[in-house]
Amino acid sequence: MLQRIRQFFRAVTARVNTRDDAFVRAHLPAAAQSLFYAMHRVDQCHAIRVAYTAAQLAARERAALDRALLLRAALLHDVGRRKGDLDLFGKVAAVLLTHFFPRRSRAWAAAGCRLLFVYYEHPAIGARLLERIGMIQEAALVRRHHAAPAATDSRELCLLRAADEAN
Asked: What SUPFAM superfamilies does the annotation carry (predicted)?
């Protein structure tokens, strides 16, 4: 829970600076930039931090991996949460509901509670958006970034999860 409190304070003060903006533009094609900038500012900042962390983790890797794919997936891993779908306080509510009422919150999401539906389904939503613009490899990583780890997971997916968890 302490990490969630830190996340909240980071989110309240989140800003995308010119260095961050240049990083996004250098790593994402135009169609993907449109998806990235359709996210809430808080999610943009989170995704940028995840990408910076992923780059650091990739630099320490001895195994072969597709660094460019990892950075694109890190920047795009939350595109299923668009501005207006789940703002900062909506995410706080979703986290609390999920923590205190895990089964009920899943049922409410299935019954049409938009906030909880987006919270739970944003990986699949984001993957579909990425598939529409031809980013199939990125979509595969985004779709599974909150799924339980499996022996067949790629190195890129493992690092994406680690970077997301750290942020």
From this structure: HD-domain/PDEase-like
